[in-house]
Amino acid sequence: MQTTGNKRSSCPSFRLREVASMYFTMIMVFLVILVVALQGTAPRENYFPYKVPLDPQSFLELSWNVSYPEQVVHFQLLVKEPKFGLLFGMSDRGEFENADLAVLWSDGHSSYFGDAWSDEKGQLHMDSQQNYQLLKAHRTPEGLYLVFKRAFSTCDPKDYLIEDGTVHLIYGILEKPVRSLQAINLSAIHRGVQRVQLLKPNISAPELPRDMKTMEVRAPNVVIPSQETTYWCYMVELPDSFPRHHIVMYEPVITAGNEAIVHHMEVFQCAAEFDSFPHYNGPCDSKMKPDRLNYCRHVLAAWAMGAQAFYYPEEAGLAFGGPGSSKYLRLEIHYHNPLVFKGRHDSSGIRLYYTATLRRYDAGIMELGLVYTPVMAIPPGEAGFLLKGYCTDKCTQVALPPAGIHIFASQLHTHLTGRKVVTILSREGREREVVNADNHYSPHFQEIRMLKKVVSVFPGDVLTTTCTYNTEDRNQATVGGFSITDEMCVNYVHYYPQTQLELCKSAVDLGYLQRYFNLVNRFNDEEICMCPQASIRQQLSSVPWNAFNRDVLKSLYDFAPISMHCNKSSAVRFPLGFWLKLAVCNCFSRLANASPFPESTPFKDEIRIFFGSPGIAKPGYMVDDHQNLPMKDGPPRSSGWRRLL
Ligand SMILES: *[C@@H]1O[C@H](CO)[C@@H](O)[C@H](O)[C@H]1NC(C)=O
Ligand SMILES: *[C@@H]1O[C@H](CO)[C@@H](O)[C@H](O)[C@H]1NC(C)=O
Ligand SMILES: *[C@@H]1O[C@H](CO)[C@@H](O)[C@H](O)[C@H]1NC(C)=O
Ligand SMILES: *[C@@H]1O[C@H](CO)[C@@H](O)[C@H](O)[C@H]1NC(C)=O
Asked: What is the membrane topology here (predicted)?
């Protein structure tokens, strides 16, 4: 039902599991727990460092802790107005079908708690293995507290596998008594979804400098618009001649009562090339917003719901202030107001902690993934289409210091059709480490995540970022680009020491996409205009998306040479930093238990012959060397990368 993750490989064999589950069935089914009506106060010690409201009114509040040694999550659910029960659970993308649920329900006399699952029609069933274990239930003046625990992996095929990255939590409130679990109609209850990163890294906060100061970048008394989604923009100016500092930590400041509406916030620094920026306090998409605010894109801090304070590693800080840096900052707040509350006031923002005693290293941000170009496209109607962007060994060779760089945090980014993102580090032809992965990625939940383990990257290493897209609701090809309906595949990695490399991305060589169009035309009555004035977008929109054309495009992306962008800031290339026609090698030996993606499909003979045959592409497009292509004798098989030119 759920992701078939590799972590399940430690599960007992099927037979053993059957026996175990029969045992559980006998003792546990319809485990009856009386919700004891103890009067008392909330537990005095707080064992739960993480907390989010589940619903927009904060009737349900979830707190949790994670134990990596035991591989268990402890949940504490506060139900402020307990009615006749509630559901809480997890599913692949927040759907109520095929979900894994803990259910508390009451028939009006007794209360019951059980581990349940829903089938593809949304019908609830009691689970034969009770993996949500109720530990405590008690009433306080604030409401009902439930404490229960769940192992990351339960070996029960009906259960959700709790993985790193985003988890879609679902909840429902039972407003009437129900006879039995099976009588609960999931479509008829008050319900919703909340996304969180459950498996927060276990990182102890580094020691903070004594001379640390704070600065709050907050929107002043904004009236939250009564609409579901608002991006609010507010400009802030640093004091005149504010010297260079290091940001060592930041945390959210949320106006009380708006915890469930303030969805995420970012602080951007503006481009130093402009002396001044206009003041602004209003919606980011307003026609009144000055265009110059689009030059405020350098991320200083980012927070999303459920995230904790962000700490820089002890030896690094993010520089701001001083010569060569703009004194203008832009705060952007995403308000998520699905119940369209009117007249709510908000002054939320981010508190920066900074020091004048500069740390040893400046931290930097580097963009990995795909160049924003229509050359990288996703056919319509795909359930899971993969695109890969490379930061090649040649680029890391010229751009990284011999001692390497250390990645400590990462923010994954796609637009609306993105479903999974992963970046893997390879060295000497072998995959070595997952830098960051999210199997349940949602474009609606992008946060900067501290990595559980710092990843060091050395000259000659390769970083491959793979994004999976779902275009089932589209009838045109989706292309790479800036528009929200275009796609991106990006991993912003936060690292130190800062280097000049700001962007290490790739795209398939344009000439090969033109060859693809030629091939499609050969089999399909010349439907694609090969005239020079046709844009790639137009050409893609006339591809008849039959199975063959889809397969060929997939193979093209797997095996056609790429052009590599190895750029310093302000789009200046590294010497030799822009290579066309690099052979792509998908021949890294795989990292066990890490990469959730299937092996590339083998290159089909007929396609290989086509791309290998010189002179077929009509003249006038990419002037490239059709000779000596690796496809002539099959896809490149050597380990590492082969330069073609
Ligand atoms: C965090 O890591 C330390 C070791 O680095 C370990 O002793 C501790 O139990 C961990 N805590 C949790 C909550 O997993
Ligand atoms: C998590 O919470 C449970 C229940 O309160 C507590 O017993 C446990 O020690 C906590 N674990 C961690 C790692 O904080
Ligand atoms: C469940 O509720 C939905 C929506 O209220 C309704 O359309 C459907 O018929 C109900 N299903 C059952 C089995 O009662
Ligand atoms: C990288 O730099 C080159 C040369 O300045 C530029 O043409 C290219 O657009 C840059 N790439 C990206 C992705 O910005």
From this structure: Single-pass type II membrane protein
Q: Is 586 close to ligand 2, i.e. is its CB under 6 Å away?
A: no
Domain limit, last residue, from 320, 343, 362: 362
Q: Among the atoms of ligand 4, which is closest to the Cα of residue 567?
A: 1
Tell me the three-class secondary structure of 315-326, residue by residue: CEEEEECCCCCC
> Is 65 a member of any domain?
yes
Separation between Cα atoms, residue 133 and residue 171, nearest integer Å:
17
Q: Same domain, yes or no, for 499 and 628?
A: no
Q: What is the pLDDT of residues 17-43, one digit of tens each?
A: 444 444 343 333 334 444 443 334 444
413: annotated active-site residue: yes
Q: How confident is the model over 265-286, as pLDDT tens digits? A: 999 999 998 999 999 999 998 9
77 lies in the same domain as 144:
yes
Cα 116 off chain centre by: 28
**Which pLDDT band holds residue 104 (cuts at 50, 70, 90)?**
very high
Minimum-distance ligand 1 atom for the alpha carbon of 68: 14
Do 249 and 304 have their domain in common? yes
453 and 412 in a common domain: yes
Residue 233 belongs to a domain with what CATH number? 2.60.120.310
Query: Does residue 381 belong to any structural domain of this protein?
Result: yes
560 and 474 assigned to the same domain: yes
Instruction: Please report, for residues 149, 448, 595, the alpha-carbon distance to residue 168 in angstroms, rounded to integers and kept in the order given.
Output: 17, 17, 21
Ligand 4 within 6 A of 503 CB? yes
Tell whether ligand 2 has an atom less than 6 A from the beta carbon of residue 133: no
pLDDT at position 582: 61
CB 20 within 8 A of CB 100: no
**Atom of ligand 4 lying closest to residue 566 CA:** 1
* CATH number of the domain that residue 170 is part of: 2.60.40.1210
Among 366, 368, 398, 567, the mutation site with the greatest number of ligand 4 atoms within 8 A of its Cβ is 567
Domain of residue 450, residue span: 364-604
Which among 245, 334, 406, 413 is annotated as catalytic? Answer: 413
- Residue located nearest, by CA, to atom 13 of ligand 3: 185
- 245 and 321 in contact (C-beta within 8 Å)? yes
Ligand 2 site, residue 23, Cβ cutoff 6 A: no
Q: Give residue 145's pLDDT band: very low, low, confident or very high (50, 70, 90).
A: very high
Count of structural domains, the chain: 4
Alpha carbon 496 to chain centroid distance?
A: 22
More confident residue, 424 or 110: 424
Which is the catalytic residue, given 231, 336, 621, 626? 231
pLDDT value at residue 644: 20
Q: Are residues 225 and 149 in the same domain?
A: no
Predicted confidence (pLDDT) at residue 584 exceeds the cutoff of 70: no
Nearest CA to ligand 1 atom 3: 202
pTM: 0.83
Between 402 and 598, the higher pLDDT residue = 402
What's the pLDDT score for residue 168? 97
* CA gap 511, 531 in Å, rounded: 14
- Reduced to 3 states (helix: H, G, I; strand: E, B; else coil), residue 474 is coil
In three-state form (DSSP H/G/I as H, E/B as E, the rest C), the secondary structure along 185-205 is CHHHCEEEEEEEECCCCCCCC
Q: What is the mean pLDDT of the chain?
A: 83
Asked if residue 413 and residue 310 are part of one domain, the reply reads: no
Q: Is 608 a residue whose pLDDT tops 70?
A: no
Distance from Cα 48 to the centre of ligand 2, integer Å: 7
**pLDDT band of 263, cuts 50, 70, 90:** confident
Burial of 50 (0-12, 13-18, 19+ CB in 10 A): middle
Residue 69 Cβ contacting ligand 1 at under 6 Å: yes
Nearest CA to ligand 2 atom 13: 67
